[in-house]
């Protein structure tokens, strides 16, 4: 597995460097439409061809990677922290607090999110820059994506808070936030990691889907989500395999992260 | 000798009241008191009651618990928290589940130290290594880096004892500390308790259903039956002439080991 | 001798297989409906699926020829409009029978018209005839003659009868007794409908054979468009009435014989600025949007040729005005699409005090020119157009923010809160007559999108349009009406309350096994001449 990890690290480094340095690496602006060559095949000018409006796909992949690679994990982190707080405290305190919080979480889960998101979008001002719009989108995803994870965390936290080592920690004078932070959170780590890594691709896809509803990244800014939307009309892309590059990139990046982090951070 | 701890309590759980019925017990300075009784008779309840942690298991207690003349029942949670770990230490039955599997030994010990002390990393490190030495564990930084899963059961119990005596508490409550151990480890741990008492001059409430280990270690012995202490006298005396019928039954049930039988017959 | 026979047989086979000389009878035509028809009462039909069934089963007094866009006699052999457009006198065809054998008489026409105009029935088809208060009067003048008098004059009266399927007053089968080429033989809700040829259909081809050629029509209920295209590719259905440019290209690449481009359709894509005085926009933006110069400049800064070429894959045409050239009679042929001309655009803007500053356009008071355009989410073509317009406008220093919204919130903003700046939408036109556009052009109308429900016209040119639209509606002479409506088109071209961008082409995909197909821009594009369609041999079908 060692070489696989090294490969993964190297790959992630290259991808992050390329996307962070997109301004220098990208051969063209992500927004510029080369209107003479829409839907072009890969060529020397356009390494991955152009999209339906003639925009250089390679440049869009670079910039899109930057957007998604920064924001999807940030949103996943936000969701995981919220899940840890809500689930952790509920499971730790137990009793009526837990019952109330979990009932609220269930209610939260059962809300029709799509409509809520649409309402939120309808409430936003129309003249927001694409960057603001993408940040808002991911922040919303983060704020809304915690409930499922919170349930899992809560169940874990409850089991943990009844364990001998927590009793012993209390018996040695530890309590409250200190106990939660030093004794429970380290044990919740695996489940939080799992939730985090589940959320990252889920949020990326969610962002793509929101784009269809008009809530995602605003044109002309690219994201993996908007790049993946090219694959929607499956019947017309069969002749253009290079359109799959964003999808492959997404898969490889997520699995690389997984490979790197699971080996390092989780106690066996 | 002054009484370090004297208590008179009643209490139990909502589904199971009367686990302790006006139970009276007194522990003297520097003694090891063995508390025996059937499994499930309420010995552990008493241990938690002394620490005022019984509510965690859904239990309630009333009466009086005096430690060094201070009435614990009158103390608030914050004051109790200051006492736990610093004045009263606790060792539990299963060493493996008592250690946090996600934390390194060093981290757990350090956390227990920092609950009651402020100090530099160095001071903390020194204190920890000293305690490791006290409990005959390798006093080296490498050991502190281990996870509980990398220890043997005996080592784990020593770590827990080290943690319990970290702040030199006046009272150490050991709740069935040897029942999960094999015989050889058991005797090692028993010796360790004796040595800990010698080194720190502390009082130990040694709770066990195992008469033999109690006989080995304790100065005095209290027999708990149906929520009460039915007999509390020097250990040798009780073994020689048990007064209460329940105590007699307990001693009769002991497997006959020639030496003890001979001692009893004197 | 024998060789000669073989040669003759081969010759006949060749003729047969080309399908030119002989139309073949029989077979089943299959295509998809998006949903179940909501009703079989032809007067109550408003949804697409019901209208398809009505077209295939209903017999009408006169039919709008989809190719020539002229009304042609069907059940009525002749008619005369009199009394200033209030009255129509019809002569019915002899010997026509309903599908159940009941003979057609003028009583049936009277019954149908009375039903159509019955206020209690709320017939959507009848709406077009309700030009004024009052009752309709039908006078049966004989078995085959009838006079109908409407309460008020109706412009373009005869063509409206294209939508009115005549029902039987006496048939025990009620609305299921029909006069069209087919009748509904089987209806499996949610799955399919089977229409069988009407044995009593009156129409015959030039050689005297009874029409239609095809025995039955199977209508599959299929919501999903992807599956529909898949089924066409597998040969499970025979055509798709309307396809998008992407799929058209794909069909074209795989099997050019299947792809049909009927030319410019009536549908238009356009954008407009919010000119509602009570909208929550800042005053300086309202000033921009109500300025003709500003709107004309935006219009000229948009490269319509590029929109056509890239967003629509060339399957559209730059639009000039409210009427598509696909509408042969009403289109004002003097109008040309606004050309792409950034220089002219900047000049127009300069007239209003706009100026470029470091490549960014500012208005007279120094406000940076930035606005948003909303469009409905999920429409690939509109999203593409919006993104292209974004780049076009950046060419004259304008920052455009593209916002895609779900339809309900879009409508909410358009019609209630007026909280939007510009909007990009399309219009599906099904009706050729300008009367159908009254509700858009009258300044008092709710659908006068850029500034709806005005008490008095906000501008002189809107007042002029109001006047002209009313004039054309009350004029009866078609030429006179056309003159008025031409003027409306010219004002719209000049003022650009709607900035018309493109007219899409009417695209369809038809299996080569269907013969005599001539798709047109009007609905129903592919099967408007259902009577005359026929199916090729199985060999041809499997090709």
Please provide a written account of the structure:
- The complex is a heterotrimer of chains A (268), B (266) and C (543).
- Chain A is mostly helical and 268 residues long.
- Chain A has 12 helices and no strands.
- Chain B is an alpha/beta fold and 266 residues long.
- Chain B has one domain: Rossmann fold (3-Layer(aba) Sandwich), CATH 3.40.50.
- A 6-stranded mixed β-sheet of chain B has the order 6-7-8-3-9-10, with helices on both faces. A 4-stranded antiparallel β-sheet of chain B has the order 2-1-4-5, with helices on one face.
- In chain B, helix 8 links the parallel strand 7 and strand 8.
- At the A-C interface, helix 5, helix 9 and helix 11 of A face helix 5, helix 6, helix 9, strand 16 and helix 11 of C.
Q: Topology of this structure?
A:
The complex is a heterotrimer of chains A (268), B (266) and C (543).
Chain A: H1 2-20, H2 22-25, H3 57-93, H4 95-110, H5 113-123, H6 130-144, H7 146-161, H8 164-171, H9 176-213, H10 224-228, H11 234-237, H12 245-265
Helix pairs in contact in A: 1-3, 1-12, 3-4, 3-6, 3-7, 3-9, 4-7, 6-9, 7-9, 9-12
Chain B: E1 3-13, E2 16-28, E3 32-36, H1 43-51, E4 59-67, E5 70-71, H2 77-83, E6 88-91, H3 95-98, H4 105-116, H5 121-134, H6 141-144, H7 153-164, E7 171-175, H8 183-200, E8 203-207, H9 211-217, E9 220-225, E10 228-234, H10 235-240, H11 245-252, H12 258-265
Parallel strand pairs in B: 3-8, 3-9, 6-7, 7-8
Antiparallel strand pairs in B: 1-2, 1-4, 4-5, 9-10
Helix pairs in contact in B: 4-5, 5-7, 7-8
Chain C: H1 2-18, E1 28-33, H2 48-57, E2 62-64, E3 71-73, E4 76-82, E5 87-92, H3 106-117, E6 137-140, E7 145-149, H4 157-160, E8 182-188, E9 192-197, E10 216-221, H5 225-233, E11 239-240, H6 245-254, E12 259-273, H7 283-289, H8 292-301, H9 304-311, E13 316-318, H10 342-351, E14 355-357, E15 360-362, E16 370-376, H11 380-394, E17 399-405, H12 407-417, E18 422-427, H13 438-441, H14 460-474, H15 478-495, E19 498-510, E20 514-515, E21 534-535, H16 538-542
Parallel strand pairs in C: 1-10, 16-17, 16-18
Antiparallel strand pairs in C: 2-3, 4-5, 5-7, 6-7, 8-9, 9-10, 11-19, 12-18, 12-19, 13-19, 14-15, 20-21
Helix pairs in contact in C: 8-10, 14-15
As for the CATH topology of the domain at 263-504 in chain C, it is: Dipeptide-binding Protein, domain 3
Q: Name the CATH superfamily classification of the domain at 263-504 in chain C.
A: Dipeptide-binding Protein, Domain 3
From the spread of the alpha carbons, the general shape of chain C counts as: globular
Largest sheet: number of strands, sense, barrel closure of chain C: 7 strands, mixed
Q: Name the helicity range of chain B.
A: 40-55%
Give the tally of β-strands of chain C: 21
What amount of the residues of chain B lies in strands?
Answer: 25-35%
Give the averaged pLDDT of chain C, no decimals.
89
Low-confidence sequence ranges of chain B: none
| Biggest sheet character of chain B | 6 strands, mixed
Content-based structural category of chain C: alpha+beta
Order of strands side by side in the largest beta sheet of chain B?
6-7-8-3-9-10
Secondary structure tally, helices of chain C: 16
Helix content of chain C: 25-40%
**Can you tell me the number of structural domains of chain B?**
1
Query: What is the CA-CA span between the terminal residues of chain C?
Result: 34 Å
**Overall pLDDT score of chain B:** 87
Biggest interchain interface, per-side counts: A-C, 28 and 39 residues
Relative strand content of chain C: 15-25%
User: Which oligomerization state do the chains in this entry correspond to?
Assistant: heterotrimer
């Amino acid at each position: 597995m060692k070489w696989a990890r090294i490969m993964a690290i190297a790959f992630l480094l290259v991808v992050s460097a390329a996307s962070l340095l997109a301004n220098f690496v990208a051969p063209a602006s992500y927004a510029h439409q080369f209107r003479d060559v829409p839907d072009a095949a890969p060529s020397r000018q356009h390494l991955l061809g152009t999209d339906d409006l003639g925009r250089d796909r390679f440049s869009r992949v670079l910039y899109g990677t930057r957007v998604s690679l920064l924001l999807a994990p940030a949103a996943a982190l936000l969701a995981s922290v919220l899940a840890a707080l809500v689930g952790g405290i509920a499971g730790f305190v137990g009793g009526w607090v837990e019952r109330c919080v979990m009932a609220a979480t269930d209610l939260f889960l059962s809300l029709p999110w799509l409509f809520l998101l649409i309402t939120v979008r309808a409430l936003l001002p129309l003249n927001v820059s694409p960057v603001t719009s993408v940040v808002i989108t991911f922040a919303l995803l983060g704020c809304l994506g915690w409930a499922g994870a919170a349930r899992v965390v809560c169940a874990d936290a409850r089991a943990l808070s009844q364990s001998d080592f927590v009793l012993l920690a209390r018996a040695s004078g530890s309590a409250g936030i200190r106990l939660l932070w030093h004794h429970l959170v380290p044990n919740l780590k695996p489940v939080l990691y799992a939730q985090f890594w589940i959320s990252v691709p889920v949020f990326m896809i969610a962002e793509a889907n929101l784009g269809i509803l008009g809530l995602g990244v605003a044109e002309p800014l690219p994201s993996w989500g908007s790049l993946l939307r090219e694959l929607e009309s499956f019947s017309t892309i069969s002749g253009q395999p290079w359109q799959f590059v964003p999808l492959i990139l997404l898969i490889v990046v997520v699995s690389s992260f997984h490979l790197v982090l699971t080996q390092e951070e989780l106690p066996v | 000798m002054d009484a370090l701890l004297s208590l008179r309590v009643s209490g139990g759980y909502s589904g199971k009241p009367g686990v302790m019925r006006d139970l009276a017990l007194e522990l003297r300075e520097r003694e090891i008191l063995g508390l025996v009784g059937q499994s499930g008779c309420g010995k552990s309840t008493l241990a938690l009651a002394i620490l005022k942690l019984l509510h965690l298991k859904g239990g309630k207690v009333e009466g009086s618990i005096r430690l060094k003349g201070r009435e614990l029942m009158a103390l608030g949670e914050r004051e109790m928290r200051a006492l736990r770990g610093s004045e009263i230490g606790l060792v539990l039955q299963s060493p493996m589940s008592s250690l946090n599997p996600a934390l390194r030994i060093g981290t757990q010990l350090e956390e227990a130290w920092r609950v009651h002390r402020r100090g530099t990393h160095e001071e903390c490190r020194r204190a920890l290594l000293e305690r490791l030495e006290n409990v005959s564990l390798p006093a080296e930084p490498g050991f502190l880096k281990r996870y509980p899963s990398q220890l043997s059961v005996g080592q784990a119990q020593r770590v827990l004892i080290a943690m319990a005596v970290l702040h030199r508490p006046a009272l150490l409550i050991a709740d069935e500390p040897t029942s999960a151990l094999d015989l050889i480890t058991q005797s090692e741990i028993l010796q360790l308790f004796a040595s800990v008492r010698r080194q720190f001059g502390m009082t130990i409430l040694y709770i066990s259903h195992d008469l033999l280990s109690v006989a080995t270690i304790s100065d005095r012995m209290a027999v708990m039956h149906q929520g009460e202490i039915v007999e509390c006298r020097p250990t040798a005396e009780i073994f020689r002439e048990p007064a209460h019928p329940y105590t007699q039954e307990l001693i009769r049930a002991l497997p006959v080991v020639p030496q003890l039988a001979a001692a009893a017959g004197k | 001798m024998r060789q000669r026979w073989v040669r003759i047989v081969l010759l006949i086979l060749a003729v047969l297989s080309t399908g030119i000389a002989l139309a073949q009878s029989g077979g089943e035509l299959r295509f998809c409906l998006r949903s179940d028809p909501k009703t079989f009462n032809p007067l109550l039909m408003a949804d697409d699926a019901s209208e398809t069934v009505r077209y295939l089963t209903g017999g009408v007094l006169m039919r709008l020829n989809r190719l020539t866009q002229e009304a042609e006699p069907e059940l009525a052999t002749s008619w005369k409009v009199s009394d200033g457009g209030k009255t129509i006198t019809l002569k019915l065809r002899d010997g026509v029978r309903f599908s159940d054998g009941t003979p057609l008489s003028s009583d049936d026409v009277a019954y149908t018209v009375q039903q159509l105009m019955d206020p209690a029935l709320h017939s959507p088809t009848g709406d077009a005839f309700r030009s004024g208060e009052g009752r309709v009067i039908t006078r049966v003048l004989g078995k085959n003659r009838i006079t109908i008098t409407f309460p008020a004059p109706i412009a373009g009266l005869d063509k409206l009868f294209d939508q009115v399927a005549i029902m039987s007053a006496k048939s025990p089968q009620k609305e299921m007794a029909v006069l069209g080429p087919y009748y509904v033989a089987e209806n499996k809700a949610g799955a399919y409908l089977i229409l069988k040829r009407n044995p009593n259909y009156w129409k015959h081809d030039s050689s005297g054979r009874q029409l239609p050629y095809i025995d039955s029509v199977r209508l599959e209920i299929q919501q999903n468009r992807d599956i529909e295209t898949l089924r066409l590719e597998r040969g499970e259905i025979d055509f798709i009435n309307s396809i998008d440019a992407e799929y058209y290209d794909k069909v074209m690449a795989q099997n050019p014989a299947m792809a049909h481009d009927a030319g410019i359709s009536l549908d238009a894509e356009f954008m407009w600025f919010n000119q509602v005085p009570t909208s929550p926009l800042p005053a300086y933006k309202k000033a921009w949007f109500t300025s003709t110069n500003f709107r004309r400049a935006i219009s000229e800064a948009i490269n319509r040729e590029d929109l056509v070429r890239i967003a629509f894959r060339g399957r559209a045409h730059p639009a000039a005005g409210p009427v598509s050239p696909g509408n042969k009679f009403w289109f004002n042929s003097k109008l040309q699409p606004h050309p792409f001309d950034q220089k002219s655009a900047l000049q127009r803007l300069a007239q209003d005090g706009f100026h470029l500053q470091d490549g960014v356009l500012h208005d007279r008071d120094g406000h940076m020119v930035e606005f948003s355009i909303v469009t409905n989410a999920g429409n690939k073509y509109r999203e593409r157009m919006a993104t292209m317009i974004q780049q076009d406008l950046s060419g004259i220093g304008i920052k455009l923010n593209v916002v895609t919204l779900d339809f309900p919130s879009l409508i909410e903003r358009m019609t209630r809160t007026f909280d939007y700046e510009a909007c990009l939408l399309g219009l599906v036109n099904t009706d050729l007559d300008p009367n159908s556009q009254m509700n858009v052009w009258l300044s008092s109308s709710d659908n006068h999108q850029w500034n709806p429900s005005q008490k008095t016209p906000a501008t002189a040119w809107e007042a002029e349009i109001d006047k002209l639209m009313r004039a054309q509606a009350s004029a009866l002479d078609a030429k006179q009406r056309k003159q008025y409506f031409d003027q409306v088109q010219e004002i719209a071209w000049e003022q650009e309350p709607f900035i018309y961008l493109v007219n899409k082409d009417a695209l369809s995909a038809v299996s080569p096994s269907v013969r005599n197909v001539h798709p047109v821009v009007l609905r129903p594009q592919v099967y408007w001449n259902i009577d005359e369609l026929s199916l090729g041999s199985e060999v041809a079908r499997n090709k």
